[in-house]
């Protein structure tokens, strides 16, 4: 049944050829050369179309058919154009290219900082235990050391946030050591922080008062007591602590370090 359409097509081409021969003979009698060329071109187009239609049905003698294991016993006919499909290696390469193309782009540190801070515009941050290696005011009397791991994150915060740094100190020498350490780290030159936004006080109550007056979108601290006191007034807080902490307000996020909070 599948061969009937092809036979009908061949009969149609033969009839059209006979009709075309009659027309050509009449045209030759009238010696109309333009009509001859037009008919000849049309005939070439018909022959070309006929050959294209016949090409898929021609047997492939030079290329043996690929048969899957067990295909001879199942009696399932192989598609005549099976050899025209890409190999498994080609498919694997295509999948690799597609996976690489649609692989999610890793966000930059600046994008992560803005996302984690929820586009907050003002941030207050304690120095001890967060930005400095030292953890007590007594240690600041000897030296002040900026953590190199937190420096990149801190500079990203200063690019789009109004950042205030603050600390409780015991003397003026501790203040000088802190400012010198921040300056040597390049925070004042590379970032948007100015020395006037580094605030000092003599008590923790004074530091709490600084935060409440500034009304930041985020406050970062290493003191659990101060984080608890400010929970009623500050919308978002980040508490830096390496030890297990007691339960505090829901708006306080606990992290072991500042850089870990902003890591992917």
Q: What does this entry show, briefly?
A:
With about 260 residues, the protein is of the alpha/beta class. It is built from twelve helices and six strands.
Unreliable spans are 71-77
Q: What's the total count of β strands?
A: 6
Instruction: Determine the N-to-C terminus distance.
Output: 65 Å
- Spatial strand arrangement across the major sheet: 3-2-1-4-5-6
Q: In angstroms, what is the radius of gyration?
A: 41 Å
Shape designation: rod-shaped
Based on helices, strands and strand pairing, what is the structural class? Answer: alpha/beta
Largest sheet: 6 strands, parallel
The amount of beta strand, in percent, is 5-15%
Describe the structure.
It is built from 12 helices and 6 strands. By secondary structure, the chain is α/β, with parallel strands linked by helices. Strands 3-2-1-4-5-6 form a 6-stranded parallel β-sheet, sandwiched between helices. Strand 4 (about 220), helix 11 (about 225-230) and strand 5 form a beta-alpha-beta unit. The two termini are about 65 Å apart. Mean pLDDT is about 80; it is low at about 70-75.
């Amino acid at each position: 049944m599948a061969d009937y359409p092809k036979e009908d097509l061949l009969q149609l081409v033969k009839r059209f050829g006979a009709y075309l021969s009659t027309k050509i003979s009449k045209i030759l009698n009238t010696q109309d050369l333009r009509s001859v060329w037009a008919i000849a071109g049309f005939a070439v187009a018909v022959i070309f179309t006929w050959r294209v239609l016949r090409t898929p049905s021609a047997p492939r003698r030079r290329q043996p058919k690929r048969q899957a294991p067990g295909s001879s016993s199942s009696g399932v006919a192989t598609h005549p154009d099976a050899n025209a499909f890409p190999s498994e290696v080609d498919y694997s390469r295509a999948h690799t290219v597609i996976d690489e193309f649609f692989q999610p782009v890793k966000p930059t540190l600046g994008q992560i900082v803005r996302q984690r801070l929820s586009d907050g515009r003002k941030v207050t941050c304690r120095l001890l235990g967060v930005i400095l290696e030292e953890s007590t005011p007594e240690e600041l009397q000897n030296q002040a050391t900026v953590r190199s791991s937190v420096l990149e994150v801190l500079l990203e915060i200063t690019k789009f946030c109004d950042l205030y740094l603050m600390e409780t100190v015991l003397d003026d020498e501790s203040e000088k050591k802190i400012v010198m350490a921040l300056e040597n780290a390049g925070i004042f030159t590379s970032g948007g922080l100015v020395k006037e936004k580094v605030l000092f006080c003599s008590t923790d109550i004074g530091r709490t008062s600084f935060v409440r007056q500034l009304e930041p979108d985020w406050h970062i601290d290493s003191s659990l007591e101060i984080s608890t006191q400010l929970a009623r007034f500050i919308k978002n807080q980040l508490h830096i602590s390496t030890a297990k902490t007691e339960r505090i307000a829901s708006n306080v996020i606990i992290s072991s370090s500042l850089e870990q909070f902003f890591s992917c």
